């Protein structure tokens, strides 16, 4: 089977998921072409697993000061370029298109009547899952940004719906952690403001990752540029993460048994809903803004949740090899039987 795979590159979560899928698709012998959009081409890193890939500008969202600005997103969009890219993408030689919430690929496939398989967290919102912070604009974006014929939704829990667990790498559980070490990834926040709120907690060591590293004058706050290997190592070693309420990083933290403090982007329905789900499930703590009292309480909290998820990328690839039969509740229930949730002390 020949596949065209489009990945939204605005955040690193989609790319991380695609890396895991790429390994399983290659192992299964599928011929895959990858396309990435959502950020400038020179801002992608550690892309070797994709064996060369296409890049288009695509669509993205304007973010700043911890929130999404939909009005600026519309004004900064380049509709003529987007339409040109959609019309210029020839999918006639492909048997299937996969979209990880990537709009150029999804809309090109729809225009050319090529079947689209949507894989990602966003497609879980087609079902009855925790949902808050919604508004007509958010609903419109979620439904039409990257439409698919078949959507495979991913979430931390099934909520009684035919959705699957997260697609993540499954490393060994850390045998030892650095109890006072915290990874901070808040790329949509003002980084100096983040440092200001963390500086009073001198008994903890913070590893702060951001797209544009800032200078930290505090010995207990180390600022890092984005680095896949460095970030993975620090997440593996740390006791917990402070991050926005993106899906993929929280999934990795749960798989590794790290405590979570999530600050959702304002005006971003998906992240607000993710934070609500973390709280509802008892999987993490949340804060609406950088609130020192909540940060302090969470830092001294020694409880976490360790979830062992099966290899969902392999489950999906095997399902594709079987002709993609209807992914009903019975199928997904069998998958969820392989999920193990454990409360731990750190």
From TrEMBL:
One of its GO terms (molecular function) is transferase activity. Keywords: Transferase. It comes from the Bacteria. InterPro entries: MJ1255-like. It holds the Pfam family Glyco_trans_1_3. NCBIfam families: MJ1255. This is Glycosyltransferase. It comes from Methyloprofundus sedimenti.
């Amino acid at each position: 089977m020949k596949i065209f795979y489009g990945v939204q590159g605005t955040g690193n979560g989609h790319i991380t998921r695609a890396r895991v899928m790429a390994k399983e698709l290659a192992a299964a012998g599928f011929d895959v072409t990858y396309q990435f959009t959502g950020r400038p081409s020179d801002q992608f890193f550690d892309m070797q697993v994709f064996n060369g890939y296409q890049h288009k500008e695509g669509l993205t969202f304007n973010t700043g000061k911890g929130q999404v600005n939909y009005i600026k997103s519309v004004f900064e969009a380049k509709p003529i370029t987007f339409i040109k890219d959609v019309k210029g993408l020839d999918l006639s030689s492909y048997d299937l298109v996969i979209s990880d919430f990537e709009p150029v690929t999804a809309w090109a496939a729809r225009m050319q009547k090529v079947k689209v398989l949507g894989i990602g967290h966003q497609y879980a919102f087609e079902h009855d899952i925790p949902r808050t912070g919604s508004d007509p604009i958010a609903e419109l974006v979620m439904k039409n940004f990257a439409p698919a014929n078949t959507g495979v939704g991913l979430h931390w829990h099934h909520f009684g719906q035919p959705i699957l667990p997260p697609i993540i790498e499954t490393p060994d559980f850390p045998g030892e952690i650095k109890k006072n070490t915290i990874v901070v990834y808040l790329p949509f926040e003002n980084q100096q403001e983040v440092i200001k709120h963390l500086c009073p907690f001198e008994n903890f060591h913070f590893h702060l990752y951001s797209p544009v590293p800032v200078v930290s004058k505090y010995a207990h706050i180390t600022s890092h540029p984005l680095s896949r290997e460095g970030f993975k190592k620090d997440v593996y070693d740390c006791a917990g993460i402070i991050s926005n309420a993106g899906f993929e990083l929280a999934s990795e933290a749960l798989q590794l048994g790290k405590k979570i403090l999530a600050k959702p982007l304002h005006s971003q329905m998906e992240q607000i809903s993710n934070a609500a789900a973390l709280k509802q499930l008892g999987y993490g703590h949340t804060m609406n803004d950088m609130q020192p009292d909540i940060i302090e309480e969470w830092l001294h909290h020694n409880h976490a949740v360790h979830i062992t998820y099966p290899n969902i990328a392999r489950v999906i690839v095997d399902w594709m090899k079987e002709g993609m039969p209807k992914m009903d509740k019975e199928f997904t229930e069998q998958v969820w039987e392989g999920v193990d949730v454990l409360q731990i002390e750190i």
